[in-house]
Amino acid sequence: MSGLHASVSVSLGALDLDVALDVAPGEVVGLLGPNGAGKTTLLRALAGLRPLADGRIALDDVVLDEPGTGRFVPPERRPVGLVFQDLRLFPHLSVRDDVAFGLRARGVARAAAHATALGWLERVGLAGMAASRTTALSGGQAQRVALARALAPEPALLLLDEPLSALDAATRADVRRVLRAHLTAFAGPAVVVTHDAVDALTLADRLVVLDGGRVVQEGAPAEVARRPLSRWVADLVGLTLVPGTVRGPGSVEADGGHLLAVAGDEGLTVGQAVHVAIRPAAVALFRSRPDGSPRNVWPAVVTGVEAAADRVRVQATGPVAVAADITHAALAELALVPGDDVWVSVKATELDVYPR
Fold this sequence. Notes:
Elements: E1 4-12, E2 15-23, E3 28-32, H1 39-47, E4 54-59, E5 62-66, E6 71-72, E7 80-83, H2 95-105, H3 110-123, H4 139-151, E8 157-161, H5 169-185, E9 190-193, H6 197-203, E10 206-211, E11 214-219, H7 221-226, H8 231-237, E12 240-248, E13 251-254, E14 259-261, E15 273-278, E16 284-286, E17 297-307, E18 312-317, E19 322-326, H9 328-334, E20 341-345, E21 351-355
Parallel strand pairs: 3-9, 3-10, 7-8, 8-9
Antiparallel strand pairs: 1-2, 1-4, 4-5, 5-6, 10-11, 12-13, 12-15, 13-14, 15-21, 16-20, 17-18, 17-20, 18-19
Helix pairs in contact: 2-3, 2-4, 3-4, 4-5
């Protein structure tokens, strides 16, 4: 097995997709990006549902699509398992027959297909639902059936389009655990499209970020989350991303003109374009200018207050717009509401600066 080697060029309306993607056997790649970036189009091209305008798709050294040579393997003949965002279970079939569908379509005898389907239903914990109609399933159960149906024909490539997006929070965590276990056991390459940071960080071995039909960043999940190169990814992982320019040792001028004191800028040069990443937990808020001489302090106006179970996210706009995570007790003490004036303070050592 050599995995997936794809160079995908597709034009679809305003989207001009041009992406090179290699996925090793046993590797799970997470595809991220804003709406319209080309994630689902790329997945459909790999599955054969969207023919290439140019490029080449090869799976385990077998060419599936190559316009230059006229080679095109139709979707039903590709060894690809696909889990759609809306699952697309057959409402008129039993759960067992739905899982067996791909096998039957490939000519497997009914008894053998049913036996394989039951084996997969046992793996996903739904053997007791085999005779039920798919319409009787809960969201989490339907997701597991869709996964079993994709895996039952033993595909060489597994594609999942937003596999957990339709689930509630409690079900999502449980199904995510099941999905991760099966992805870990899957011997072939797998590609997962998601908009969820937790899904991306827990399911994928490597992240590929698309924007405007191009790859704008890729790497290990922890590295992409720590040093995002786009505001979309920064928002996804909860960081404030400030573009700027190095003005001297330990000094970055934000694009708006405000100077930030930074640490850990070794290897950067004066005039170099950089990003400064700020974690919300590193931001302190005050009603009056803090005492002492903090190196990064500026006035701001509260533009949003959003409470969660374990913290409060405060949005503050000033020379540098930031998000701050504070405790419920701190919110009560500060008595902040949108429109209030505050002072923002961030230690230089809490800022991560890196090239754009």
